[in-house]
Model the fold of this input.
Amino acid sequence: MAHKLLGQDFLPHDVVAKVTGEAKYAEDFRAEGMVFARLLSSPYPHARVRSIDASEALAMPGVVGILTPDDVKNPKAPDIPLLTLEPGYVGAPILLIAAEDETTAQDAIDKVRIDYEPLPFHVDPLASMHPDHPDARTDGNVGAAGVEFQKLKWTKEDFDNANGKMPMGKAAQEWTYGDLDATFARCKLVLDETFVHASNSHHSMEPRTAMAYWQNGKCILHVSSQSQSFIHPALAGMIGIPPTDLMLVAEYCGGGFGSKGGAYPLQALPALFSKKINRPVMMRISRAEEYYNGSARLGFQGQVKLGFAEDGKLLAADLYVIQENGACQSFFDFRNAADALSILYQPEAMRWRGLPVYANSPIRSAQRGPGYNQMAHIMEPLLDKAARELKVDRLAIRLKNVGGLNAPFGAQRNTVSSCYLKDALEKGAQQFGWAERVARSGQRNGSKVTAVAVGQAYHPAGFNGFDGLLRILPTGKVHIHTGVGNLGTFSHSSTSRIAAEVLKLNWDDVVIERGDSRRHLPWNIGQFGSNTNFTMARTNYVAAMDALTKLKEIAAKRFGGTPESYDVDGKRVFRRGGGPGMTYGEAAQQAIKLGGKYDGHELPKDINPMTQVSATAISGTGLVGVAKDTLPMKGAPAAFAAAFIEIELDLETGKHVIIDYLGVADCGTVIHPAGLETQIKSGAVQGFGVASSERIVYDPQNGLPASVGFYQAKPPTYGDVAHRFRTSAVDLPDPSSPLGTKGIGEPLLGCAASVLLCALSEAVGGHAFNRTPVVPDMILNHLAGRAPSHGPLQVNCQ
Amino acid sequence: MLRDMMPRFDLYQPDSLDSALDLAERLGADGWLVGGGQDSWDWLKNRTRHTGAVIDLSGIAALKGVREADGGIEIGALTTLTEVENDPLVKERFGLLSTAAGRVASPQIRNAGTLGGNLCQDTRCWYYRGGVDCYRAGGNMCYADTPQGQNREHAIFGASRCVAVTPSDTANALTALDASMVIHSRSGERVVAAADFFVGPAVNIRRMTVIEPGEILTAVRVPGTWAGAGFYFEKIADRAAWDFALLSISAALKLEGDMVRDARLVCGAASCVPHRLTAVEKTLVGASRSDEVIAKAVSAATEGASTLQFNQYKLPLLENLVRRAIKGAGVAS
Done:
């Protein structure tokens, strides 16, 4: 099917706004009488606040007020508290002070005297499972979404019986399918390996600053958020008001990478403080605070046993993942990891055991490919190890294991809506020239060795059941209301083009309404989880189809005949065969005259209350298209990506250079080529950092974080990207998406990190480091025949 | 806790060296000297170190620029790293310094950062920067030099209670070039050899250079001695830009054919001061760059080294860099 807009490049309006500086982030807003708030954060990894003496601070000229834990209603533990008297990590917010200027606010913070009782702490989840080792929290040590918050310790025997493997006591959650023992018994090769995946910061360029004030009982709140409508109810709940009393502004977001997908407490604090002191409150978060209080990927320690047939087919897998939660409730990467292994490699039998453990380290949250990507980074070098031992080509072993179009996964053996990973691997291999170039892998040029590798990754790619909303105005303009948020991928616009495509509009005729709940936004998914494309394609599709139906009905009422005898094009609805018609603007006028469902005075019963409110607010202004996504869906939407790389590793320095990189996306039908290219490249850059430089480091003696600045946390720089950087896509439609599109953002990081890890391993003769990232000192120690500086399961270390 | 919030202070912006020296003398230890500010602003914003007054030297034109002097060159301390990197005289005669300056941090930082600031900057030990009460901060322990310390970047030479290293890329290049530092105060001028300018913890654990309160580093003199020698500079860091060295090496060899007539090899990020590899130099001087000589020199590079839990990789890396430096000095890349 030929599309008018899909597959075409366009210039999203926020690109211009960002380049010109017109874009306003939370920090850019001001309000009459605004004061500045600063945080007082814990210097201890775990402590109890015995007393707070802020008298000297509050007596300072210019100081306006204080917000303490007594002023806020914290959620039930172990959810993230807004403010706390038992901080569980260095940087945990304890109180805020507001002043007429920011310097005075910080000076006042420095005058606050707090009496702390230091408590036992740890920064090693595995070690903390020992019965003699302290826990991170006083009320429990294990838990996650879907896992009861509990106290769970292993026995000394669990540790004593490890025999060189990771100690593996009782898991918090597990599943199995197939006959594991019998399947391992018929394997030609069994690998049984420990692994560590480091935690790394999200490095959001815009720290999580927020500003709030109140007018007529309503809270106007400016935040840094990936999502718009999705966080609205939860954020209103944190503030203690109904969602209709919250005016939420989140038009631009300077990066979130998963950490700003949901509502978070720092967004609510200025609102609560503003209510208390009756002044607008700006709470700027500094770069260091972003590292203390921002977020990080969940780290893993684990053991994986893999059984292969002679031809490289993975027959059996036994996976145990210990997840580092941070100090509070976080994400469920440990569960996602199991799905990633099962879907990417399709083992006949598999067991997964998982244990999410709290540690005295900062809040963790989903980071681009939570769990799915860590698993790819762990598994892909091991797949290469198996290929070497079985003397199978490294591309061939992936093609041997790749799933089919409706590949099953997980314990339930659910299937995906589409999987074109095989096509991505084959297309990439052809474009990269795998057959010729792999023969060069291992060639030496002085101290440098060439290494060629292939990698892959998976992530879910969509949800369903949200609402679409648009209106056609008498001017003929079509306003598409989207509450998905703005992560910076332009998908608020690219998915709106689905509606424009259905209504056969020129893009100039479309106005995107977004970024501020006062623009009457529908209930939409947040912008996370690589889901925006698939989910929002469906909501925009159903809203457009509703508008299309109404256009035809209005025309039929005016000119006679059945609605089915009408068609649309050129901003007109007309009877097929040269009959009469009217413009969209005239139809909108008719809709207002007709009222009822046509102009939004009557709404579908199944839409979300948020959409009801928004649609009601715009009723009577034009033809309103509004609907809940109830389209059929077969299988779970899934995104895949393959990557090919050539690097040169200097064996004398441990440093590598990326000569050539090719990323290939399985994203269904390509919706926005320029956006896709940007995603493939930026995901790859982020992946290069995860693979080779980024990690959180803690001193186990005092719980202090070492990585609290860009230069310490080490995301890649302009000098660390690929010299030749190419992108490609399979461009085959997903059957469950109205126009074939689906998400892709997250596996683009995973495939890049995986392929670089594989290449580094290949460059040193196939040694699997079983650790992410692989940094130069690890390579140097290995090549010099020295033992690694870290223990095999040591985490949060250098 | 890093506060990340600039405090109030009095700002002085003298437009002449005389004015700056008056201020430096009057304010003494309370007068914080700022060149490009790339080190200073961090300290002040983080509120881990404090001052009541800042003397901003950036308006003093006389402290900027590169000029010929006594067969060598003199570089104003306020000359930016970008200017040092690209200056024709520096490039032509002392390519080692040009290359080292060009490997500092990032283009933006090199545009703001000055040569004097790069030489006088404080160590980047993350414990010390994080505001702990370590020896260097006036306390009574070193957090890095413990069995569990995270000490990957720390010293393999010259530790004395403190194991922090020099972060400066230009310091070891200038040490290799036998440069000297011109220091002014109200009492006059003193010139200190680079080898004596930087001080280790055994000499003074609270500072990195010999600069006293009231003194200002005004210029760096590079003698003509090493002009046009065979040079080699290499910096190994985790990232290609905006990173401090895990280890760096500066080499200057005077060659007659393949015979080494004189040699300077200095490594950075190995010690609190630029670490001159005198044993390597001795092996080389008077010898040809044969495999045998190079092997002997390489094995001498790590003499006296002592490693911590996470920095043992610096031993093979130093050996490799020394080998590359000897082979690469004077060879067009």
User: Anything to note?
Assistant: Residues 147 and 309 of chain B are 7 Å apart (CA to CA). The mean pLDDT of chain B is 97. The interface with chain A takes residues 1-8, 46-47, 106, 126-127, 130, 132, 143, 146, 148-152, 234, 236, 238-244, 246, 309-313, 315-317, 320-321, 323-324 of chain B (CB under 8 Å).
